[in-house]
Amino acid sequence: MATPEPKLTLADSAPAPARMGRADQTLAKKRRLLQIAREEFIRQGYRALTMDAIAQAAGVSKRTLYLWHEDKAALFRACLAAGVERFPLPQLNDPAEPEADLRAFGVALLLEFTRPSTVGMARLLLREAHEFAEFGSLIRQSQDDYLVAPLAAHLARAGIAKDSPAAAAKILLSMLLMPVHNYLLIDAELPGEVEIEAHVQMVVGTFLGGARGRQRPT
After folding, report:
1. Of 1, 4, 41, 82, whose Cβ has the fewest other Cβ atoms within 10 Å?
2. What is the fold, at CATH topology level, of the domain defined by 22-76?
3. C-alpha 54 chain-centroid distance
4. Chain centre to alpha carbon of residue 44
5. b/e map of 7-42 (b: 16 or more CB within 10 Å)?
6. Is the domain covering 86-215 a CATH 1.10.10.10 domain?
7. pLDDT tens by residue, 18-45
8. Residue ranges of the HTH tetR-type domain (predicted)?
9. Distance (Å, rounded) from C-alpha 103 to C-alpha 121?
10. What are the tens digits of pLDDT across the range 164-192?
């Protein structure tokens, strides 16, 4: 049985306070535009959605929309950037005990990747990637810049996989995100918070056991 599509909301958007300055009001409007544009891309698809429809949904003029984003491709890239900037960063609290830090990162990562808007954008990219070659490079660049590089730096600081931290980071990310991949590819159910905790605990323990085993002197 196919998993129902996650329900999208505008819960994160809020009206700008009346006393906000003009620059703050403009920034708030730009953020709200990106939130609405993300939802419209997810709902209608990249090819079908027009700039006219986005302007109407966001309540801005076409002139303003094109002033902020030169075309639909630029707007879509901005929507992606707004999403990946939400990805958590691993925190190194105790280099001698990295498991707790990696577990906290893994839980935060899965909670973000199971958000309706994040899942919706991932489904959109998978669905339309064959038509738009630039999607592939956008996905790879976002993954490298916002996931692999920060995690690789964290692993290196913690003394894990010192010879190949980027390769180790990719392996760990693949293991952590397996429930999301299963949802996108085979319609498996997305995990809840309890399942996320259990999955992350198992993945991090397995990963650290393998990494420590490879680093033992022969």
Report:
1. 1
2. Arc Repressor Mutant, subunit A (1.10.10)
3. 22
4. 20
5. ebeeeeeeeeeeeeeeeeeeebbbebbbbbbbbbbb
6. no
7. 556 888 888 999 999 999 999 999 999 9
8. 27-87
9. 25
10. 999 999 999 999 999 999 999 998 999 99
